[in-house]
Write a structure and sequence with these properties.
Rossmann fold; 5-stranded mixed β-sheet; 12 strands; Glu_Leu_Phe_Val_DH; binds NADPH dihydro-nicotinamide-adenine-dinucleotide phosphate; nucleotide-binding; 3 domains; nucleotide binding; alpha/beta
Length: 445
């Protein structure tokens, strides 16, 4: 990092103590921005970096709820609006016991660049709670969502802040959240939240968009870096949630064989190819552990607490959570001949892992570019809702075009700054420039 950037980083870190995930996300972006600051002194002059790294607003609130036995619980809710230079705050809600303000800030910060890369009019935000949905009854989930929205609703709006899903928040939770918003405000504002069911304002592509988008991006990246295609390759995909499931579905359609997936308890290996319908039944319908895959596929193997990155593969898609792919895992992937890693999750690879992959000619697609398909389709959902239209025909082709646009933007920017195929640098600078230019134009000081 240059001295200027280095001292900026130190300043920001000292103002946000204990937020290690935010510091990591910040570092990963700032270390690539020196060349663009050299080229555009106006960004430095107007303190664009300082503005861009400070959230516009951060809301923290109490979420009390009652379990089925009448016991009272208290969780903490968060919503960070990071940047609204190019549109309303936009980003998902995460319900997971590990969630802290630092987690939400890192996710909202990443979202700034991701949303800008889509070329669509969406600013950045993220929210969530340290609530653990695992093992909760449907009624408990409903009561929690209602209490969460009872606090959050006053900060939301189609032109202000539009949440969606993330870890632990799918169509069911979005339904309960929207229902409570509607109940309190007495307004049917479909565009106030995305990831809705296609039956009441959602688009059918949203559920699949992040996973499909990762595979579209990966296909383009393989072509550009290795002159290869997905067809005939073996792949491993970590996680078995929304992103992982539909990445596996699209990998299969594209001719790859997915031989492993996981959840936080263990890894399933199926040399015949993971059966995605089984994963959907286990995770979306029955909401049970991935180990149950063995019941219908007895020839598969389950490794409790296993490391999915030990399994030899051509393509690896980390689609579970942050920092799940570490330096040693990257070394294993390289040793076993992996040629591409594309991030479905947000910040799943540590900086050390990224450096190992990049220096060993493994094509590396960072999450802020590769997993932008979800938020892009959310922006399309907002457009449909704004028109009060019942036509949800935003298609897979439109998603494909957007992912190709993002891939091109990353590639061209990396070339422009003399680092061809450095998708990390390309994504950071391309996203940064769009937001920075809007901030300059608005005189946001
Ligand atoms: P889901 O809740 O649907 O699935 C998450 C998956 O990851 C589950 O298999 C879960 O296992 C596993 N997982 C979660 N936390 C951990 C952990 N601490 N250690 C190990 N495994 C874990 O979430 P999504 O699929 O929606 O999100 C996955 C990732 O993709 C996240 O990083 C999210 O921010 C990112 N993302 C999601 C988008 C979307 O559209 N949903 C858009 C862009 C990015 P278990 O069930 O055992 O907890």
């Amino acid at each position: 990092m240059s001295d200027t950037i280095d001292s900026l980083y130190e300043q920001i870190v000292s103002r946000s103590p204990g937020e290690s995930e935010f510091h990591q996300a910040l570092y990963e972006v700032l270390e690539t921005l020196s060349p663009v600051l050299d080229k555009h002194p106006e960004y430095k002059e107007h303190k664009i970096i300082e503005l861009l790294c400070e959230p516009e607003r951060q809301i923290i609130f109490r979420v009390p709820w009652e379990d089925d036995n009448g016991g009272i619980h208290v969780n903490r809710g968060f919503r960070v609006g990071f940047n609204s230079a190019i549109g309303p705050y936009k980003g998902g809600l995460r319900f997971h016991p590990s969630v802290t303000l630092g987690t939400i800030k890192f996710l909202a910060f990443e979202q700034t660049f991701k949303n800008a890369l889509t070329g669509l009019p969406i600013g950045s935000g993220k929210g969530g709670s340290d609530f653990d949905p695992k093992g909760k009854s449907d009624r408990e989930i409903m009561r929690f969502c209602q209490s969460f929205m009872t606090q959050l609703y006053r900060y939301l709006g189609e032109s202000t802040d539009v949440p969606a899903g993330d870890i632990g928040v799918g169509t069911r939770e979005i339904g309960y959240l929207f229902g409570q918003y509607k109940r309190i405000t007495q307004r049917y504002e479909s565009g106030v939240i995305t990831g809705k069911s296609p039956d009441w304002g959602g688009t059918w592509i949203r559920k699949k968009a992040t996973g499909y988008g990762v595979v579209f991006f990966c296909e383009e990246m393989l072509k550009a870096v290795h002159d290869e295609t997905i067809k005939g390759k073996t792949a491993v995909v970590s996680g078995s949630g929304n992103v992982a499931t539909y990445a596996m579905e699209k990998l299969k359609v594209s001719g790859a064989k997915v031989i492993a997936c996981s959840d936080s308890d263990g890894v399933i290996i199926d040399e015949n190819g993971i059966n995605v319908d089984t994963v959907i039944d286990l995770k979306e319908v029955r909401r049970v552990r991935i180990s149950e895959y063995l019941t219908s596929h007895p020839t598969a193997k389950y490794i409790e607490n296993g490391n999915i990155w030990e399994i030899p593969c051509d393509i690896a898609l980390p689609c579970a959570t942050q920092n799940e792919l570490k330096e040693d895992d990257a070394k294993l992937l390289v040793k076993n001949g992996c040629i591409a890693v594309c991030e479905g999750a947000n910040m799943p690879s540590t900086p050390e892992a990224i450096s190992i992959l990049q220096s060993n000619n493994v094509a590396f697609g960072p999450g802020k570019a590769a997993n932008a398909g979800g938020v892009a389709s959310s922006a399309l959902e907002m457009q449909v809702n704004a028109m009060h239209s019942a036509s949800y025909d935003y298609s897979e082709e439109r998603l494909h075009e957007i992912m190709n646009h993002i891939h091109r933007a990353c590639c061209q920017t990396a070339e422009e700054f003399g680092e061809p195929h450095n998708y990390v640098l390309g994504a950071n600078i391309a996203g940064f420039r769009r937001v920075a230019n809007a901030m300059l134009a608005f005189g946001l000081i």
